Amino acid sequence: MKTSIAITLTASTLFTLVTPASAAVVDFGYEASRLPDIDNDKLAELAVLVPDIGFNDLGTASIAALSGDTGAPLWTADIGDYRRMEFVPMDLLHDLDEDHHKDLLVANSYTDEVFLLSARSGDELAAWSSPAGAPTRFGHTIAALHQDLDDDGVPEFAVAATGAPHYAGSGVVYIFSGVLEGGLLTTIPGPEGSGFGFAIEPTYTDYDADGVDEILVSAIGQTHVVGGQIYRGSVYIINPATGATIDRIDNTDDQDLHANNILFGYTLQRTGDLDRNGVDDFIVGAPNVQGTLGTSSISVISGETGDEMCRYDSTIDFDGFGSGLAAKWRFDPLAIDHGTVDVVVGAPDEDTFGRVYALRIVGDPAGTCTVTPTFDELGAVAGSYAGNRVALYNRNINIAYQDEVEWLSPSSLLHSGFVVSQFEDSVPGGAIGSVRYYDSDGVLEKTFVYTP
Protein backbone atom coordinates (compact mmCIF):
# COMPACT_ATOMS: atom_id res chain seq x y z
CA MET A 1 0.00 0.00 0.00
CA LYS A 2 1.37 3.39 -0.98
CA THR A 3 1.02 6.48 1.22
CA SER A 4 1.78 10.14 0.64
CA ILE A 5 4.62 12.10 2.23
CA ALA A 6 4.75 15.87 2.26
CA ILE A 7 7.99 17.65 1.45
CA THR A 8 9.28 20.84 2.99
CA LEU A 9 12.12 22.47 1.07
CA THR A 10 14.64 24.45 3.12
CA ALA A 11 17.58 26.57 1.99
CA SER A 12 20.42 25.30 -0.17
CA THR A 13 20.59 21.53 -0.66
CA LEU A 14 18.91 20.45 2.57
CA PHE A 15 15.58 18.66 2.16
CA THR A 16 13.16 17.89 4.98
CA LEU A 17 10.59 15.11 4.65
CA VAL A 18 7.49 15.39 6.80
CA THR A 19 5.19 12.43 7.34
CA PRO A 20 2.30 11.75 9.74
CA ALA A 21 4.35 9.29 11.78
CA SER A 22 3.29 8.98 15.40
CA ALA A 23 6.74 8.29 16.80
CA ALA A 24 10.34 9.24 16.19
CA VAL A 25 11.73 7.57 13.09
CA VAL A 26 15.36 7.17 14.00
CA ASP A 27 16.32 4.71 11.28
CA PHE A 28 15.55 6.86 8.24
CA GLY A 29 18.43 6.25 5.85
CA TYR A 30 19.57 3.06 7.56
CA GLU A 31 19.27 1.49 4.09
CA ALA A 32 19.42 3.29 0.74
CA SER A 33 19.85 2.36 -2.92
CA ARG A 34 20.11 4.04 -6.29
CA LEU A 35 17.03 4.00 -8.51
CA PRO A 36 16.73 4.75 -12.22
CA ASP A 37 15.33 8.08 -13.39
CA ILE A 38 11.56 7.69 -13.01
CA ASP A 39 10.47 11.35 -13.27
CA ASN A 40 12.29 12.02 -16.57
CA ASP A 41 14.54 14.82 -15.28
CA LYS A 42 17.75 13.05 -16.40
CA LEU A 43 18.79 12.41 -12.77
CA ALA A 44 18.73 9.09 -10.94
CA GLU A 45 16.49 8.75 -7.89
CA LEU A 46 17.14 7.32 -4.43
CA ALA A 47 15.28 4.55 -2.56
CA VAL A 48 15.38 4.98 1.23
CA LEU A 49 14.09 2.98 4.19
CA VAL A 50 11.46 4.96 6.15
CA PRO A 51 10.51 3.25 9.43
CA ASP A 52 7.73 4.21 11.83
CA ILE A 53 9.05 2.91 15.14
CA GLY A 54 7.06 2.90 18.36
CA PHE A 55 7.19 1.03 21.65
CA ASN A 56 10.06 -1.44 22.27
CA ASP A 57 11.73 -0.49 18.97
CA LEU A 58 8.91 -2.13 17.01
CA GLY A 59 6.75 -0.67 14.29
CA THR A 60 6.33 -0.75 10.53
CA ALA A 61 8.44 0.36 7.60
CA SER A 62 8.15 1.51 4.02
CA ILE A 63 10.46 2.25 1.12
CA ALA A 64 10.34 5.78 -0.32
CA ALA A 65 11.56 6.77 -3.77
CA LEU A 66 13.04 10.27 -3.52
CA SER A 67 13.75 12.56 -6.45
CA GLY A 68 17.46 12.85 -7.08
CA ASP A 69 16.91 16.50 -7.97
CA THR A 70 14.55 17.90 -5.32
CA GLY A 71 14.34 15.16 -2.72
CA ALA A 72 10.57 15.04 -3.15
CA PRO A 73 8.93 11.64 -2.61
CA LEU A 74 7.78 10.03 -5.84
CA TRP A 75 6.18 6.97 -4.24
CA THR A 76 6.22 4.94 -1.03
CA ALA A 77 5.59 1.22 -0.56
CA ASP A 78 4.83 -0.57 2.71
CA ILE A 79 7.04 -3.55 3.55
CA GLY A 80 5.29 -4.64 6.77
CA ASP A 81 6.39 -4.93 10.37
CA TYR A 82 9.85 -3.75 11.34
CA ARG A 83 12.19 -3.84 14.31
CA ARG A 84 14.80 -1.17 14.74
CA MET A 85 18.14 -1.76 12.99
CA GLU A 86 17.02 -4.93 11.24
CA PHE A 87 18.55 -5.49 7.82
CA VAL A 88 16.46 -4.25 4.88
CA PRO A 89 18.84 -4.65 1.92
CA MET A 90 17.92 -3.37 -1.55
CA ASP A 91 19.30 -4.20 -4.98
CA LEU A 92 18.28 -3.38 -8.54
CA LEU A 93 17.05 -6.37 -10.51
CA HIS A 94 16.32 -6.63 -14.22
CA ASP A 95 13.18 -5.13 -15.76
CA LEU A 96 10.46 -7.73 -15.14
CA ASP A 97 7.44 -5.49 -15.70
CA GLU A 98 8.84 -4.29 -19.04
CA ASP A 99 8.56 -0.57 -18.28
CA HIS A 100 12.15 0.07 -19.38
CA HIS A 101 13.41 0.45 -15.79
CA LYS A 102 15.18 -2.07 -13.62
CA ASP A 103 12.98 -3.15 -10.72
CA LEU A 104 13.86 -2.96 -7.02
CA LEU A 105 14.46 -6.05 -4.91
CA VAL A 106 13.81 -5.32 -1.20
CA ALA A 107 14.13 -7.69 1.75
CA ASN A 108 12.71 -7.40 5.27
CA SER A 109 14.75 -9.73 7.46
CA TYR A 110 12.44 -9.10 10.42
CA THR A 111 9.41 -10.57 8.67
CA ASP A 112 11.39 -13.08 6.57
CA GLU A 113 10.12 -11.66 3.28
CA VAL A 114 11.57 -10.44 -0.01
CA PHE A 115 9.63 -8.13 -2.33
CA LEU A 116 10.10 -7.09 -5.93
CA LEU A 117 8.84 -3.53 -6.43
CA SER A 118 8.36 -1.61 -9.63
CA ALA A 119 11.01 1.10 -9.63
CA ARG A 120 8.64 3.40 -11.51
CA SER A 121 5.56 3.08 -9.28
CA GLY A 122 6.47 1.16 -6.13
CA ASP A 123 3.83 -1.47 -6.93
CA GLU A 124 4.57 -4.96 -5.64
CA LEU A 125 5.35 -7.30 -8.52
CA ALA A 126 6.24 -10.43 -6.56
CA ALA A 127 7.03 -11.64 -3.04
CA TRP A 128 8.95 -14.54 -1.52
CA SER A 129 8.96 -15.97 2.01
CA SER A 130 11.49 -18.15 3.79
CA PRO A 131 11.50 -21.75 2.50
CA ALA A 132 12.43 -22.85 6.04
CA GLY A 133 9.63 -20.93 7.73
CA ALA A 134 10.11 -18.08 10.20
CA PRO A 135 12.04 -16.76 11.99
CA THR A 136 15.23 -17.37 10.01
CA ARG A 137 16.35 -13.81 9.12
CA PHE A 138 15.50 -14.61 5.53
CA GLY A 139 16.48 -11.54 3.54
CA HIS A 140 19.42 -10.53 5.70
CA THR A 141 21.37 -10.37 2.43
CA ILE A 142 20.22 -10.24 -1.19
CA ALA A 143 22.23 -10.10 -4.41
CA ALA A 144 21.15 -9.84 -8.02
CA LEU A 145 23.14 -12.26 -10.16
CA HIS A 146 24.13 -11.66 -13.76
CA GLN A 147 23.61 -15.22 -14.95
CA ASP A 148 20.66 -17.25 -16.18
CA LEU A 149 20.99 -20.63 -14.48
CA ASP A 150 17.70 -22.22 -15.62
CA ASP A 151 17.76 -21.21 -19.30
CA ASP A 152 14.65 -19.03 -19.17
CA GLY A 153 16.46 -15.94 -20.43
CA VAL A 154 16.38 -14.10 -17.09
CA PRO A 155 19.22 -13.83 -14.52
CA GLU A 156 18.62 -15.12 -11.00
CA PHE A 157 19.07 -13.65 -7.50
CA ALA A 158 20.40 -14.88 -4.15
CA VAL A 159 18.85 -14.50 -0.69
CA ALA A 160 20.54 -15.39 2.60
CA ALA A 161 18.77 -16.49 5.78
CA THR A 162 21.58 -16.05 8.31
CA GLY A 163 19.51 -17.29 11.25
CA ALA A 164 18.28 -20.47 9.57
CA PRO A 165 17.30 -22.84 10.89
CA HIS A 166 15.29 -20.75 13.38
CA TYR A 167 18.02 -18.40 14.59
CA ALA A 168 20.51 -21.24 15.08
CA GLY A 169 22.99 -19.11 13.19
CA SER A 170 24.09 -21.70 10.65
CA GLY A 171 22.81 -19.76 7.68
CA VAL A 172 21.42 -20.80 4.31
CA VAL A 173 21.78 -19.16 0.89
CA TYR A 174 18.93 -19.63 -1.57
CA ILE A 175 19.14 -19.09 -5.33
CA PHE A 176 15.80 -18.07 -6.85
CA SER A 177 14.74 -17.91 -10.47
CA GLY A 178 14.60 -14.34 -11.68
CA VAL A 179 11.25 -14.62 -13.46
CA LEU A 180 8.05 -13.57 -11.67
CA GLU A 181 6.60 -17.08 -11.67
CA GLY A 182 9.96 -18.72 -10.93
CA GLY A 183 10.80 -20.63 -7.79
CA LEU A 184 13.70 -21.88 -5.71
CA LEU A 185 16.57 -23.31 -7.76
CA THR A 186 19.36 -24.05 -5.27
CA THR A 187 19.60 -24.37 -1.47
CA ILE A 188 23.09 -23.92 -0.03
CA PRO A 189 23.35 -24.61 3.74
CA GLY A 190 26.26 -23.29 5.77
CA PRO A 191 28.24 -24.89 8.60
CA GLU A 192 26.67 -24.90 12.04
CA GLY A 193 26.91 -21.58 13.87
CA SER A 194 28.84 -19.93 11.02
CA GLY A 195 26.53 -17.05 10.08
CA PHE A 196 26.81 -18.28 6.50
CA GLY A 197 25.45 -15.73 4.04
CA PHE A 198 26.18 -12.62 6.07
CA ALA A 199 27.46 -11.04 2.85
CA ILE A 200 27.11 -12.19 -0.77
CA GLU A 201 29.00 -10.84 -3.77
CA PRO A 202 28.78 -12.18 -7.35
CA THR A 203 32.03 -12.74 -9.22
CA TYR A 204 32.77 -12.73 -12.91
CA THR A 205 35.05 -15.75 -12.67
CA ASP A 206 34.18 -19.34 -13.57
CA TYR A 207 36.52 -21.13 -11.16
CA ASP A 208 35.42 -24.68 -12.00
CA ALA A 209 35.03 -24.12 -15.77
CA ASP A 210 31.41 -25.31 -15.89
CA GLY A 211 30.07 -22.19 -17.58
CA VAL A 212 28.76 -20.65 -14.36
CA ASP A 213 30.47 -17.78 -12.55
CA GLU A 214 30.82 -18.31 -8.82
CA ILE A 215 29.57 -16.17 -5.92
CA LEU A 216 31.38 -15.10 -2.75
CA VAL A 217 29.60 -15.91 0.51
CA SER A 218 30.93 -14.89 3.92
CA ALA A 219 30.57 -16.77 7.19
CA ILE A 220 31.54 -14.40 10.00
CA GLY A 221 31.20 -17.06 12.70
CA GLN A 222 33.18 -19.78 10.92
CA THR A 223 36.02 -20.99 13.18
CA HIS A 224 39.14 -22.80 12.04
CA VAL A 225 42.40 -23.91 13.61
CA VAL A 226 45.82 -23.18 12.14
CA GLY A 227 48.95 -24.21 14.02
CA GLY A 228 46.93 -24.83 17.15
CA GLN A 229 45.47 -21.31 17.05
CA ILE A 230 41.77 -20.57 16.61
CA TYR A 231 40.75 -17.99 14.01
CA ARG A 232 37.31 -16.73 13.07
CA GLY A 233 35.67 -15.70 9.80
CA SER A 234 35.74 -17.18 6.29
CA VAL A 235 34.72 -16.39 2.73
CA TYR A 236 33.43 -19.21 0.54
CA ILE A 237 33.61 -19.39 -3.25
CA ILE A 238 30.35 -21.12 -4.19
CA ASN A 239 28.90 -22.44 -7.43
CA PRO A 240 25.35 -20.98 -7.39
CA ALA A 241 24.00 -23.64 -9.76
CA THR A 242 25.11 -26.68 -7.76
CA GLY A 243 25.81 -25.22 -4.32
CA ALA A 244 29.26 -26.77 -4.36
CA THR A 245 32.10 -25.11 -2.45
CA ILE A 246 34.96 -24.37 -4.84
CA ASP A 247 37.28 -22.84 -2.25
CA ARG A 248 37.32 -21.25 1.20
CA ILE A 249 39.43 -18.28 2.27
CA ASP A 250 39.98 -18.21 6.03
CA ASN A 251 40.96 -15.31 8.22
CA THR A 252 44.40 -16.18 9.57
CA ASP A 253 45.71 -12.75 10.50
CA ASP A 254 47.40 -12.78 13.90
CA GLN A 255 46.04 -9.29 14.59
CA ASP A 256 42.61 -10.88 14.75
CA LEU A 257 43.67 -13.90 16.81
CA HIS A 258 41.09 -14.69 19.52
CA ALA A 259 39.33 -11.42 18.69
CA ASN A 260 35.77 -12.74 18.58
CA ASN A 261 34.56 -9.19 18.12
CA ILE A 262 36.31 -8.90 14.72
CA LEU A 263 33.71 -9.80 12.08
CA PHE A 264 35.76 -10.93 9.07
CA GLY A 265 33.35 -11.06 6.15
CA TYR A 266 30.86 -8.50 7.45
CA THR A 267 31.06 -6.89 3.99
CA LEU A 268 32.30 -8.10 0.60
CA GLN A 269 33.10 -6.11 -2.53
CA ARG A 270 34.47 -7.18 -5.90
CA THR A 271 37.29 -4.90 -7.10
CA GLY A 272 38.13 -6.00 -10.61
CA ASP A 273 41.47 -7.53 -11.60
CA LEU A 274 44.02 -5.51 -9.63
CA ASP A 275 47.09 -7.63 -10.42
CA ARG A 276 46.15 -8.32 -14.05
CA ASN A 277 46.26 -12.10 -13.76
CA GLY A 278 42.89 -12.55 -15.40
CA VAL A 279 40.87 -13.09 -12.20
CA ASP A 280 38.93 -10.44 -10.31
CA ASP A 281 40.04 -9.73 -6.76
CA PHE A 282 37.83 -8.70 -3.84
CA ILE A 283 37.73 -6.82 -0.54
CA VAL A 284 36.68 -8.26 2.81
CA GLY A 285 35.49 -5.92 5.55
CA ALA A 286 36.37 -6.96 9.11
CA PRO A 287 34.89 -4.37 11.47
CA ASN A 288 35.09 -4.45 15.24
CA VAL A 289 31.56 -3.56 16.27
CA GLN A 290 31.45 -4.98 19.80
CA GLY A 291 32.99 -2.14 21.81
CA THR A 292 36.01 -4.16 22.94
CA LEU A 293 39.65 -3.97 21.90
CA GLY A 294 40.46 -5.06 18.39
CA THR A 295 41.51 -3.51 15.09
CA SER A 296 38.91 -3.00 12.38
CA SER A 297 40.24 -3.45 8.85
CA ILE A 298 39.62 -4.21 5.22
CA SER A 299 41.67 -6.83 3.36
CA VAL A 300 42.16 -7.13 -0.39
CA ILE A 301 42.13 -10.80 -1.36
CA SER A 302 43.54 -12.30 -4.56
CA GLY A 303 40.77 -13.96 -6.52
CA GLU A 304 43.31 -16.39 -7.98
CA THR A 305 45.24 -17.54 -4.89
CA GLY A 306 43.09 -16.46 -1.94
CA ASP A 307 46.12 -14.70 -0.45
CA GLU A 308 45.90 -11.29 1.17
CA MET A 309 47.28 -8.72 -1.29
CA CYS A 310 47.18 -5.82 1.15
CA ARG A 311 45.34 -4.64 4.23
CA TYR A 312 44.27 -1.30 5.66
CA ASP A 313 43.79 -1.03 9.42
CA SER A 314 41.76 1.54 11.26
CA THR A 315 43.70 3.63 13.77
CA ILE A 316 40.84 3.60 16.28
CA ASP A 317 39.67 0.55 18.22
CA PHE A 318 36.09 -0.74 17.86
CA ASP A 319 35.08 1.96 15.37
CA GLY A 320 33.23 -0.37 13.02
CA PHE A 321 35.55 0.46 10.09
CA GLY A 322 34.46 -1.81 7.24
CA SER A 323 30.77 -1.97 8.20
CA GLY A 324 29.92 -0.07 5.02
CA LEU A 325 31.81 -0.79 1.80
CA ALA A 326 31.47 0.27 -1.84
CA ALA A 327 33.99 0.35 -4.68
CA LYS A 328 34.32 1.56 -8.25
CA TRP A 329 36.95 0.65 -10.80
CA ARG A 330 39.09 3.60 -11.89
CA PHE A 331 39.72 3.58 -15.62
CA ASP A 332 43.31 4.37 -16.58
CA PRO A 333 44.21 3.64 -20.22
CA LEU A 334 47.93 3.90 -19.40
CA ALA A 335 47.86 1.25 -16.66
CA ILE A 336 48.24 -2.04 -18.49
CA ASP A 337 50.06 -3.97 -15.75
CA HIS A 338 47.85 -3.12 -12.78
CA GLY A 339 44.36 -2.06 -11.82
CA THR A 340 43.10 0.71 -9.55
CA VAL A 341 39.90 0.84 -7.53
CA ASP A 342 38.45 3.64 -5.40
CA VAL A 343 36.79 2.45 -2.20
CA VAL A 344 34.40 4.13 0.22
CA VAL A 345 34.49 2.65 3.73
CA GLY A 346 32.16 3.44 6.61
CA ALA A 347 33.20 3.49 10.28
CA PRO A 348 29.86 4.15 12.02
CA ASP A 349 31.04 3.79 15.63
CA GLU A 350 34.10 6.03 15.48
CA ASP A 351 33.99 8.21 18.61
CA THR A 352 30.16 7.84 18.42
CA PHE A 353 30.29 10.29 15.49
CA GLY A 354 30.80 7.99 12.57
CA ARG A 355 33.24 8.57 9.73
CA VAL A 356 33.53 7.73 6.07
CA TYR A 357 36.90 7.10 4.41
CA ALA A 358 37.81 7.18 0.71
CA LEU A 359 40.75 4.97 -0.23
CA ARG A 360 42.54 4.22 -3.47
CA ILE A 361 43.83 0.69 -3.96
CA VAL A 362 46.47 0.11 -6.64
CA GLY A 363 47.37 -3.43 -7.62
CA ASP A 364 50.71 -4.85 -8.65
CA PRO A 365 51.49 -7.74 -11.04
CA ALA A 366 53.45 -9.37 -8.21
CA GLY A 367 50.14 -10.03 -6.45
CA THR A 368 50.31 -7.24 -3.89
CA CYS A 369 48.67 -3.83 -3.63
CA THR A 370 48.91 -0.50 -1.83
CA VAL A 371 46.17 1.51 -0.10
CA THR A 372 46.23 5.32 0.07
CA PRO A 373 43.59 7.72 1.44
CA THR A 374 42.32 9.96 -1.39
CA PHE A 375 40.84 12.73 0.77
CA ASP A 376 40.29 13.49 4.44
CA GLU A 377 37.70 11.40 6.21
CA LEU A 378 34.19 12.79 6.10
CA GLY A 379 32.89 13.66 9.54
CA ALA A 380 29.34 13.54 10.81
CA VAL A 381 27.10 14.85 13.54
CA ALA A 382 27.70 13.33 16.98
CA GLY A 383 25.66 10.20 17.56
CA SER A 384 24.80 9.80 13.90
CA TYR A 385 26.46 6.45 13.18
CA ALA A 386 27.37 7.80 9.75
CA GLY A 387 28.78 5.21 7.39
CA ASN A 388 26.77 2.25 8.62
CA ARG A 389 25.81 1.95 4.95
CA VAL A 390 27.53 3.41 1.92
CA ALA A 391 26.53 2.93 -1.72
CA LEU A 392 27.54 4.22 -5.13
CA TYR A 393 25.15 6.80 -6.52
CA ASN A 394 25.62 8.25 -9.98
CA ARG A 395 22.95 10.94 -10.44
CA ASN A 396 23.62 11.68 -14.10
CA ILE A 397 21.81 9.06 -16.18
CA ASN A 398 23.48 10.34 -19.34
CA ILE A 399 26.69 8.80 -18.00
CA ALA A 400 26.20 5.08 -18.53
CA TYR A 401 26.30 3.74 -14.95
CA GLN A 402 25.54 0.96 -13.84
CA ASP A 403 26.09 -2.34 -12.37
CA GLU A 404 29.43 -3.72 -11.39
CA VAL A 405 30.34 -5.34 -14.67
CA GLU A 406 29.79 -2.02 -16.43
CA TRP A 407 31.98 -0.01 -14.08
CA LEU A 408 34.80 -0.74 -16.47
CA SER A 409 33.31 1.74 -18.93
CA PRO A 410 35.57 4.82 -18.93
CA SER A 411 32.56 7.10 -19.32
CA SER A 412 31.02 6.05 -16.01
CA LEU A 413 33.90 5.99 -13.59
CA LEU A 414 34.84 9.63 -13.37
CA HIS A 415 31.36 10.87 -12.60
CA SER A 416 29.80 8.65 -9.94
CA GLY A 417 29.46 9.76 -6.34
CA PHE A 418 28.15 7.94 -3.30
CA VAL A 419 25.54 8.12 -0.56
CA VAL A 420 26.15 7.68 3.17
CA SER A 421 23.60 6.69 5.78
CA GLN A 422 23.47 8.86 8.88
CA PHE A 423 20.54 7.13 10.47
CA GLU A 424 20.50 8.57 13.98
CA ASP A 425 21.42 11.85 15.64
CA SER A 426 21.28 11.88 19.43
CA VAL A 427 22.17 15.56 19.78
CA PRO A 428 19.26 17.54 21.32
CA GLY A 429 17.47 19.45 18.60
CA GLY A 430 19.31 17.60 15.87
CA ALA A 431 17.74 15.93 12.89
CA ILE A 432 16.80 12.26 13.19
CA GLY A 433 18.15 10.28 10.31
CA SER A 434 19.51 11.45 6.98
CA VAL A 435 21.10 10.33 3.76
CA ARG A 436 23.99 12.40 2.42
CA TYR A 437 25.09 12.46 -1.20
CA TYR A 438 28.76 13.22 -1.98
CA ASP A 439 30.25 13.70 -5.41
CA SER A 440 33.33 11.76 -6.52
CA ASP A 441 35.61 14.36 -4.90
CA GLY A 442 34.00 13.96 -1.50
CA VAL A 443 32.05 17.22 -1.73
CA LEU A 444 28.67 17.13 0.01
CA GLU A 445 26.04 17.86 -2.65
CA LYS A 446 22.74 17.08 -0.93
CA THR A 447 21.40 16.02 2.44
CA PHE A 448 18.04 14.32 2.75
CA VAL A 449 16.73 14.80 6.30
CA TYR A 450 13.64 13.21 7.78
CA THR A 451 11.62 15.16 10.37
CA PRO A 452 8.85 13.21 12.15
Automatic annotation (TrEMBL):
It is found in: Membrane. This is Repeat domain-containing protein. InterPro entries: FAM234, Int_alpha_beta-p, Integrin_alpha, Integrin_alpha_N. Residues 1-23 form the signal peptide. Keywords: Glycoprotein, Membrane, Signal, Transmembrane, Transmembrane helix. GO terms for biological process: cell adhesion. GO terms for cellular component: integrin complex. Gene3D superfamilies: Integrin alpha, N-terminal. It comes from the Bacteria. It is a single-pass membrane protein. The keyword Transmembrane helix applies. The keyword Metal-binding does not apply. Its main location: membrane. It comes from Nannocystis exedens.
